[in-house]
User: Fold this.
Amino acid sequence: MTSEDFFGRIEQQHKSKLPFVVYKKPNTLAIKVILQQDSELYITKNFSENGFVFAPFNDKEDAVLMPLENSEVLSSSFIIPINEEIHSNKVIESDNEIPAEVYLERSRKAGMTKHINLVQKGIDAIKTNRFQKVVLSRQEFVSLLDNNPISIFKNLLNSYSSAFVYMWYHPKVGLWLGATPETLLKIEGSRFSTMALAGTQQYKGTLDVEWKNKEKEEQQLVTDYIISSLQSSVKEISISKIETIKAGNLLHLKTAIFGTLNFKLLNFKQLLSNLHPTPAVCGFPKGPAKQFILKNEDYNREYYTGFLGKIDSDNSELFVNLRCMQLENNQAVLYVGGGITKDSIPENEWDETLNKTEIIKRALPS
Assistant:
């Protein structure tokens, strides 16, 4: 199927207000679309169906399913046009190099004081031993003159070859796009793999960088939590060495975790409940960190830091919903956050969110 016909079908589906999800897996050229043939809002209760699941941050809320039995599935490939890769080689320097008046204006519009106060509140809670880590986030709103979601999706494809890139739409929920570097869980037969991903700094031409103790400790918390969550469902488990990976123009610390499932003990729904939300998007311990987020963040994350992906009886691959946005009318709602520990500096955490939103904005029409 030609790329033109492929995207034409997606545009027709969107105009008809019918649900769909189009996506590309990391480091591949193949793109697939699931076109739901009715406008029903299907919910998965046990994650045993065949289809594509879209789950919120709050695991007490319902996860949406696009069932394969009610859908048409199409495939194509996407080739990055020569000289049209949007800003992907441009490196964002530290905010100290941005003119002061520009920095202050951006900060004022994006709610700097509010976020810094939130981060400080999180640090204070950590120092009183309520939890060891909490992930705090915010929204940023960008007005759009051209809000064609297919164009934005193509821009994400151009810029994030190593990410899971998607566009998801349901008329009763909304339209979301993203390019996430983080796998929640992949299952192939009896084998599984996942990752611990934490720490953030800008990419400046090399992966050979120094990481602060704050980022190393944060990454170890995520690794330890995931291993603990998997213990009751696996026969064997292996852990890779920590490595620095590039996602867009950001660097992260990553540990690969893989092994063999124990099907006698495996309950897929319970396994997902144990894993999600991980300390990489919530905090540790999970319970008190999650309650702090729900009480103190002044908005509903909805599907940001939830998970999404294809599930079936033999092969499932789910990704954490990071680097994402929601399109509403003529604006993009960007979602961005960072991990807070006892060593966090609120102003630095603010700067990190600015860098992350700048990268997401590259996919938006100028």
Observations:
- The domain at 3-83+102-361 is CATH 3.60.120.10 (Anthranilate synthase).
- The CA atoms of residues 334 and 361 lie 8 Å apart.
